Every structure is written in C-alpha cells, then in structure tokens.
C-alpha cells in the first residue's frame, strides 16, 4: 500500500480513526486506506435541511471526508438567518438555501461534490431517498421528521424464507440472511442521524430502522404545543402573545374573509403586528414587538449558533461511525443542555415492537383466491391477532371500513373480491387493519400492521408495479 | 456499513431499478391512527359524517350536527375537519361552516372548545371531538365567549337569546348580522 509514502494530508486526523485498529470499534471494522478511499467513493449522504443545523452539517460532513453529499431545503435565505447560518452572506438574501450552502462548501472544501435540491421533501419521489446510504436530518419540525422517518422505514424489508430464496440477487451476491422471520434484511436498512436544537438545548440521535427505535416509536415523548384557548384570546387577553394570537387567529379571518394568512408574507405579518399593538393598547398590555409577533406566529425559538455547532458535530461523528464502523454508534439518543452549566446524557430508547412505521408487522400467507371477506374472518382466528370486525387499508386505499355507515356502504362491494386483486396483484406488501382484539375476555381496539404474502407467486413479481386492479 | 454501501453501488450500476423496491407513497402514522378513529366511530343519530373527497381521503371530512334538544333544536350545523399527518400529536383543525348565533362559535366559524386547543391530548379521538361539538349546542356556555354579544344575551336574557337563535336559524337578522337559514 502506498500510504507510507503519501504526503501528510488533510485527512491526517481522520486517518487516526480509519487506518488503525482499536478496542472500541464497531463490528466488521476493517481499518486501512481502502476504507478511507471507499468512504469517499461509495458513501452517499443526504442532508435534509440547509438552515442553522444544515449549514453546520454540510461543512462537518465535507471535512469528515465524505465526498458525495446532497442537500435538500425548500427555503430561501432571509436576513435574520445570517447571524448563525454562516454559509450565507448579505448578497445571498433571497436565494435558495440549499444551492448557496452547497456552492459555498464546495468552494471551501476541495474535492467534495454537493448536489442541491431546492424543493419540499414531499416533492421528491420516494425512490430519490433510496439512493442514499445515510440520511442526516437538520430539521425544525415534527412533521418533516415524521415524513422522512416514514420514507426511510418504507425501504425496510423483513425476510420471508421462501421469497428470499427466490430472489436472485441474494443468491448472486451472497447476502447475509437472517434465519428468523422478523428481522430486517440488512441491505434494506436506511440509517438516519437526527439533530435538533431549541435555544440552548439540543439532541442528536441515531435511528437504524428495524434495529433501534424509529422516530414514530417515541413521538409521544414530545410535549404538546402550547395553544391558548380561543375565548381567552377573544375576551381576556393577559399577555403580549395573547394579543398577537388574537390578531393572527381571529381578527385576520374577520377582516380578510376567505384569504389565508401567509406567515412568509411581510405585509401579512405587519398587519398582524399592527392589529396586535392596537389590541395590547386597548387592554394595557406591554411587550408587543414585531419580532415577538414573528416568533409567536411562526413558533420561532431563538436559535444559538454554538448549540447548532455542538449538535451538528455529534451528528457528523455518528454518520462517520455508521459508515466506517470506526466506533460503536451512539445508543441511541443524546441530549445536550447548556442552559445552566452544561449537561450531556445518552439515553437508550427502546423500540416499539408493534410500531406501525418500523415494526415488521404480523406475517400472513394467503392464497391468491382468498376474498377480502374470507381474509377478515381469518384474522379473527389468527393466533397472533384474534382481531374481529376488521377494517382494512392498503397503501392509502380503504378496502373495507366497518364504520361509519357511509364508508361501509362505499367499500362493501370489495368484500367478495380476492384480496390479491384489491392489492393490485403485488405478491408481498404491507396492509393495516383496525378492529377489536379479545384476550382473556378483555376487548380492546387495536390497529395492526400485517405483512401479506401470497403463495405461489414468483418473488420477481413483487417488482411489478404496473399491475392495476 | 461501508461494505454494504459498496455492494449496493455495484448493484446499482449493474441494474438500475431491477432490484429496487417500487416507489410508493406510504401512509403517514397520522393517517393510520385516523383510519382507526373513523372505523370505530360511534355517533349518535344527531350527528352525521361525510367524506367529500371520497372513501380514500379520511383527512378531510365534514360532520353535520342536528341537535335534538335545547335552543338549537332542528338546526343543521356543518363542521369541517382537517387532520394533520402528525395526528394525534396535533388536534384536528375544526371550523363551523354554518354561520351560527352562538356564544362559543364566532361568525367566522372559529370554535371555542377546550379539547380542540389547550386541552387536546393524543388519547382523545374524533369521536370525543364530535361529542364535544354536540355538547356545545345542548349546553352553550356564556363563560367562554367567542361571540361576545350572543354570550351577554344568553347570560342576561335567556328568553331573548332563545328567540334570537330561532330567528338566526330560520334565516334573518340578529342585530346587524344576517344568518342564512339552516333548518
């Protein structure tokens, strides 16, 4: 190998992690120059978000030796971003964040290639996300995280013995196969690294779908958003925020009937601010300012550049660990709190085995002739389910609804059709059922994920997307 | 996982798409939970649900309430529900489409119901909201007013309130405000 004669390089520090064996390394770690080169050549990383965290992440990942990066963000640069989103300059205001961030990092870090996507995450085909090895999240909403999480988990495939034997690629490439049913096939796992900050607090977590808890497994941990009662806003405002929300939620509709409020339109924001000031004067409440108005309406929490830097560093390091195996990864949720002193803690969250998003679901094998009605009856006797009165949905289509009567009527005609046809002749797919489970005479309502596999269909047909009902 | 990435990259070069899983939009967790709520709806005869976008869009629907007692007996009140993909982490957005003379519903259709905002909990469901809305018609409440005038009349002169409600529901003016017939 040539590394003994190589000149001292930019990757000197990285080499210490990648070229030497160690005691804390992950399984299958193979130190060496090949690993370093492979990381550069083969690892494809997507950064979601090019804001406060995203800018840091792109820079950190580029400096950690990753060369194939892409970034997606739907926003344009605003003046108020410039204090912390350091890849942007005054002359960039109004330009797409993803494009400017990508360009700037490519100028500063030679050899790195960053493709920018200026669009919403939902605008991309699901297949777009499958092209990446690791997805790193620098987002600011539960909704966006939940979406990316569901996309990443949708690539998961749990092995089914007969089908995996039929699958040619497995035989050819000699993939690792699990003997148990409910384990994910390794090549379908799409790891995510999620960062988040709120003022002086932040988190970094590693999500390995099917192995560690996914975003949905622990979504209940988020505190509910603070919402003021409408009647308080209308009648007894006590704080500046009450006055702002009054103008935003009640007064706007009263004056602009039918026109939706756009938080990104400065004229709209100014209108809400002016109305809030009037309201505050009426009730003798101090403290309504334009920036507070923006903060309340857009739910903005002041961002701190150093928090972003710390969280991003943790995320970039985890990404490097997942890709290279140079160390075991974080297990699995790191919280950082810099409000009073400094506190960092790692908590190992547990997976929800029945998670509707990342869980394997209950495996059910069926003949292609089984009708929907027969299938619903089968669920009642299934030893793992005992689910009666099931309603069934597949890929967003409601195949049968027990209630309300209007939906029952609309879906009743499906009962006599074969489930295979209703599922667009896909040999193996996920469906969801809701119904009543009885266990020891106790009845509870439940929502379950099922993996339906049709017998006697060649494994290859599950790639056939064209088949219509 | 770099070895895996490598294999995948080679595989991609060999056959684009041949081994890929079909790209499909997955249902959000919110949709799935809503599916459960809807399939378990147990509505009183006074409430009706409709899905204007057909059987496969459960995220947007309308509920019609026909009170069978109280001031609003005989009226038809339509509410629109908009459910977010992160339901039940977030309450559905509910608006009253029918213009109504009511202390807790303003003329723009905003509804003051605690479980829609400050008291929403993920354990609540669509059924509880509909019962909550129904309750607003049998027990209008002047202590949490959104329509200030209607609340004052209900508090100070229930007889006048009753006749105002009848007039509004029959289609007519209450003060300066015109209400369309909803009986």
Give a written overview of the molecule.
The complex is a heterodimer of chains A (469) and B (183). With 469 residues, chain A is α/β, with parallel strands linked by helices. Chain A has helices at 12-18, 33-42, 52-63, 97-108, 126-130, 142-154, 161-166, 168-173, 230-235, 240-255, 266-283, 290-297, 305-324, 372-381, 405-411, 419-422, and strands at 44-48, 68-72, 113-117, 134-138, 192-198, 201-207, 333-337, 343-347, 362-366, 387-394, 397-400, 428-439, 442-454. In chain A, the strands form two sheets. An eight-stranded mixed sheet of chain A has the order 3-2-1-4-5-6-7-8, with helices on both faces. In chain A, strands 9-13-12-10-11 form a five-stranded mixed sheet. The termini of chain A are far apart. Chain B has a single domain (26-179), classed as Ubiquitin Conjugating Enzyme (Roll). Chain B has five helices and six strands; from the N terminus they run ααββββαααββ. In chain B, a hairpin with a 2-residue loop joins strand 5 and strand 6. At the A-B interface, helix 2, helix 5, helix 6, helix 9 and helix 10 of A face helix 1 and helix 2 of B. Chain A: Its EC number is 6.2.1.64. Chain A: Belongs to the ubiquitin-activating E1 family. UBA3 subfamily. Chain A: InterPro entries: E2-binding (IPR014929), ThiF/MoeB/HesA (IPR045886), ThiF_NAD_FAD-bd (IPR000594), Ub_act_enz_dom_a_sf (IPR023318), Uba3_N (IPR030468), Ubiquitin-activating_enz (IPR035985), UBQ-activ_enz_E1_Cys_AS (IPR033127).
